[in-house]
Specification:
Helix content is 32%, strand content 26%. By secondary structure, it is of the alpha/beta class. The chain has 2 domains: 4-71, Ribosomal Protein L25, Chain P; 77-232, SPOUT methyltransferase, trefoil knot domain (Alpha/beta knot, 3-Layer(aba) Sandwich). The two termini are 31 Å apart.
Length: 234
């Protein structure tokens, strides 16, 4: 039997019972999935803890879930490489696809970047957050990636707390063996049209590493998911 998974906005802890008051979640459980009581569910708060329980009471205003078991992240899950993806904002549907797939793959943090050739400088954060949560539920992920507000490239470079890796088609091919020896990677992916001159001037002021996937020209959204895949799944 499939166990439905739901991310809550509040922290769960290890209490015996969880009270759900989020109206969107109540609508999903009560009106869409037709929960009446007795269903097994997994509740998550983004921290990696899984609250496995049984639905006890369903009403229009609240749902109660009784605890059956608490699962905490395994050692292998906590020791995997942490990928912070800095993705230049592209057109709406393409960037939403990046948010969805990066979440499914296991990216730890996503920072939308406004670079010289970025097509958009705004992002509907409510919709973006919903996409990330649904992708995490669908992929059986136990944590949520941290999603930043869009920032300019100059600020994004200051946010990177390890040496940034910059995707550039003219750079040497990426050395995955070297990268996999690290615990954290901050990778920057440019917009359609590539990095601009002002972007490169910012990179020149910082100690960055340029890498590529070879001579194939990848779309911006493809490059974001390609680099996340080889780092986390390769």
């Amino acid at each position: 039997m499939k166990i439905h998974r739901f991310f809550l906005k509040n922290k769960i802890g290890e209490q015996d019972k969880v009270r759900i008051t989020d109206q969107d979640l109540i609508h999903q459980m009560r009106s869409v999935l037709r929960f009446e009581g007795g269903e097994e569910v997994a509740l998550l708060d983004g921290s990696g803890i899984e609250f496995l329980g049984t639905v006890e009471k369903v009403s229009k205003k609240e749902i109660f879930v009784r605890r059956n078991e608490i699962k905490k992240p395994s050692k292998s899950e906590t020791e995997k490489i942490e990928v912070h993806l800095f993705a230049s904002i592209t057109k709406k549907d393409k960037f939403e696809w990046v948010l969805q797939k990066a979440t499914e793959i296991g990216v730890a943090r996503i920072t939308p970047v406004i670079s010289e050739r970025t097509e958009k400088n705004k992002l509907n954060m409510d919709r973006a957050d919903k996409i990330v949560r649904e992708a995490a539920e669908q992929s059986a992920r136990v944590d949520l990636p941290f999603l930043d507000e869009p920032v300019k490239l100059s600020i994004a470079l200051n946010v990177a707390d390890v040496t940034p890796i910059i995707l550039d088609i003219n750079a040497p091919k990426i050395d995955l063996q070297k990268i996999h020896q690290t615990k954290k990677v901050c990778v920057f992916v440019g917009p359609e049209g590539g990095w601009g001159q002002r972007d490169r001037e910012l990179f020149d002021k910082r100690k960055v590493e340029y890498v590529s996937f070879g001579k194939n020209v990848l779309r911006a959204e493809t490059a974001s998911i390609a680099i996340a895949s080889v780092l986390l799944l390769g």
